[in-house]
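User: Hey, quick favor. My workstation is busy. Could you predict this chain's structure for me?
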Amino acid sequence: MAYRPDDGLAACLAAAAGVADRVHLFQQERGRDVGGDARVDRAVTATGAVLLADPANIGLAAAQNRLVDQALAQGADWLLFLDQDSVPRPGLRAAYAGALAAAPPGTGLLAARNVEPDGGPDSPWVVSPDGRRCAVVRRLDDPLLPDLLLAPASGSLVSARAARACGPLRDDFFIDWVDVEYALRLRRAGFRLVAVRDALVDHRLGAVTHVQAGGRAVAVTHHAARRRWFQARNALWTWRLHRRAVPALTGWTLRILASTAVKIAVMEQGRLPKLAAFAGGLWQGLTRRPHP
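Assistant: No problem, here it is.
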């Protein structure tokens, strides 16, 4: 999915073409950014990708749904999700092929390790075999880590069977927590989520910085106020949709919301409008019920 892409889009598409049988790209706001359109056209021509587009910004979830529909219509068995800031490393296809051969029955999603090109720490994994308690795993020692509570969409390989069974991603979430809610639906439908140690995706996190706190590096994303609103509302909507079926979600959601508020208040610039937007998202998440 491309939204106001930079020069990194070409590398992402080229790498994707090296690991996937077919590449589909969705461009938001097509026709509103001549430079961006030309950049997309060059990357598409160079890689043979299939371009879908919309003149509006319809949101991450809606764009991914169109891509999923296109891939399923063409008979894809597995779907590789990639953001425009994610570049698969060489060996991703082989790593996933090996993982599929060894994965437990019922696996519906294989998750790649999203690593930062500048050598930042890996994102932690949250596992929950029974859905009642969860634990954080900061390092993958074994080739596979089953029973993930959730997984990042970018770099994930989702089976067509799971995609059809669980339905589309939630358009009303627009951007944040889309992958979290989708992963929880996969779990509730009986599919297993498995992290793959040797599946690597370089993920550039924009303006992220790392601050040392408590003896480890803490990622600070510096997202705009509007993103903070979506993060807060969608976190609570996800919790309301799945808390009864997945009790472990309650403690994890509270931890994420609290740590996000602290990071904004202590480590980011423009904290007052961001905190106001975050509070507004919390209020919306509590007072407005998401549709089933």
